[in-house]
């Protein structure tokens, strides 16, 4: 019977990661399958023949994704060998490798999408990987867990999927969200020549509907700020995180959660947006410092008390966001506000209030890190950070 082993091939260049290779052996003939999985020597366990997470927690998601991919590949190779062996015909190691390359690169849509998700994790794009996982889970529920090949996907199937979502009350923006992700994965398979382009998404909705207005006026922000929450620490903390986002030009909560104390230097807070990779600089204001001073540092290097322990940082962020958004609903009632209050409202509100103060759209776009707006990008490249800080200072002054 053929066997498969996983081996680590170190790089010939010092300090560079090595490659994980599969060795298929049958009748004393050995064939290699080189993967695109890269790990450093310290991340390889020779006894288990698997990567391991080291003290570098920033690599944890990538390593976990590689382990998952190896496990899936091993299952697939074992299945191929089992089917060839039960066929009663003689086969070679070359045939095992050929079938692996033919099947393992995406004939199954579910398997191919899982590979895409694993690759996103290896690249550190955790948020995108989570979105892709959500879309895959939704499509899997529609299929009752039954896989589908890339060749079977057509416009009728996707139209049925869209109808399935609508019957369950899914909003059109969410329908578009799922369809666009599935389309991106399908198109990637087409680019890899794993299937021919049949445009299965041409009759489903992939646009963007206008959303309910999320911004609240400056007077509402002031009401939230002036609430007496001294006897309700959990509400007080949620309020502080909401205000901190507003104070910092609508900083997204994930960027807030991962701020380091080292990001604040000489009165300037600098951070890189996780969504776009753009680096932003914010002049540190007294109102920001007052919030930081309320929560003593716990020695883990983070500026805000969102991530409190090493390990599972992403999980801690997600749990904190859910808890804060739940508390903000209570705060909205206490402040007499109508409509939903979430962390995202702080971002919308800063932009809306800035616009009402006649601050140029280009300044608002730069302040929020909207580098994807191509129409303003040329001008934004020459815009000084001083203008953005001046705009933020003007807004915070009116709140006092």
What does this protein structure show overall?
By secondary structure, the chain is mainly alpha-helical. It folds into 2 domains: 3-191, no CATH class; 218-399, hpI Integrase, Chain A (Orthogonal Bundle). 52% of the residues lie in helices and 11% in strands. It has 15 helices and 8 strands. It has helices spanning 60-86, 93-104, 109-122, 126-142, 155-167, 172-191, 218-226, 233-247, 253-257, 286-294, 313-334, 343-356, 361-368, 374-380, 385-399; strands spanning 3-9, 18-26, 29-39, 44-45, 50-51, 264-265, 268-272, 279-283. The strands form 3 sheets. A 3-stranded antiparallel sheet has the order 1-2-3, with helices on one face. A 3-stranded antiparallel sheet has the order 6-7-8. The relative contact order is 0.07. Residues 372-383 have low confidence and may be disordered.
Helix content: 40-55%
Q: Provide mean pLDDT, rounded.
A: 86
How would you spell out the order of helices and strands? EEEEEHHHHHHHHHEEEHHHHHH
**Helical run tally:** 15
Structural class by sheet pairing and helices: mainly alpha
**Poorly predicted tracts of residues:** 372-383
**Global Rg:** 26 Å
Distance between the termini: 77 Å
Largest sheet: 3 strands, antiparallel
Number of domains: 2
What fraction strand? 5-15%
Q: How many extended strands?
A: 8
- Oligomer category: single chain
What characteristic shape results from the CA principal axes?
globular
The neighbouring-strand order within the major sheet is: 1-2-3
């Amino acid at each position: 019977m053929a066997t498969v082993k996983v081996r680590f091939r170190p790089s010939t260049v010092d300090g560079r990661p090595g490659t994980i290779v599969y060795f298929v052996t049958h009748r004393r003939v050995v064939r290699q399958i080189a993967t695109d999985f890269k790990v450093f020597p310290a991340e390889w366990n020779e006894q288990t023949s698997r990567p391991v997470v080291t003290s570098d927690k920033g690599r944890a998601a990538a390593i976990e994704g590689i382990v998952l991919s190896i496990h899936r590949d091993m299952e697939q190779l074992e299945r191929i060998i089992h089917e060839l062996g039960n066929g009663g015909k003689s086969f070679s190691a070359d045939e095992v490798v050929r079938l692996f390359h033919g099947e393992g690169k995406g004939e199954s849509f579910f398997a191919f999408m899982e590979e895409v998700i694993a690759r996103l994790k290896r690249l550190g794009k955790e948020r995108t990987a989570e979105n892709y996982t959500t879309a895959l889970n939704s499509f899997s529920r529609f299929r009752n867990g039954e896989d589908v090949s890339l060749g079977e996907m057509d416009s009728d199937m996707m139209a049925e999927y869209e109808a399935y979502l609508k019957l369950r009350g899914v909003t059109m923006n969410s329908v578009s969200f799922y369809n666009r992700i599935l389309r991106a994965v399908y198109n990637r398979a087409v680019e890899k020549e794993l299937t021919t382009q049949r445009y299965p998404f041409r009759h489903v909705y992939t646009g963007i509907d206008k959303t309910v207005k999320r911004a609240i006026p400056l007077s509402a922000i002031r009401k939230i700020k002036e609430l007496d929450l001294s006897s309700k620490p959990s509400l007080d903390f949620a309020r502080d995180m909401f205000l901190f986002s507003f104070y910092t030009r609508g900083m997204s909560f994930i960027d807030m959660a991962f701020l380091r104390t080292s990001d604040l230097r000489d009165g300037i807070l600098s951070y890189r947006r996780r969504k776009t990779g753009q680096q932003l600089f914010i002049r540190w204001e007294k109102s920001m410092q007052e919030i930081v001073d309320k929560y003593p540092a716990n020695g883990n290097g983070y500026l805000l008390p969102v991530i409190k322990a090493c390990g599972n940082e992403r999980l801690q962020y997600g749990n904190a966001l859910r808890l804060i958004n739940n508390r903000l609903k209570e705060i909205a009632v206490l402040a007499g506000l109508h409509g939903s209050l979430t962390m995202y409202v702080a971002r919308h509100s800063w932009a809306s209030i800035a616009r009402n103060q006649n601050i140029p759209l280009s300044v608002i776009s730069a302040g929020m890190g909207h580098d994807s707006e191509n129409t303003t990008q040329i001008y934004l490249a020459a815009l000084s950070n001083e203008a953005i800080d001046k705009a933020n200072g003007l807004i915070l002054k009116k709140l006092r």
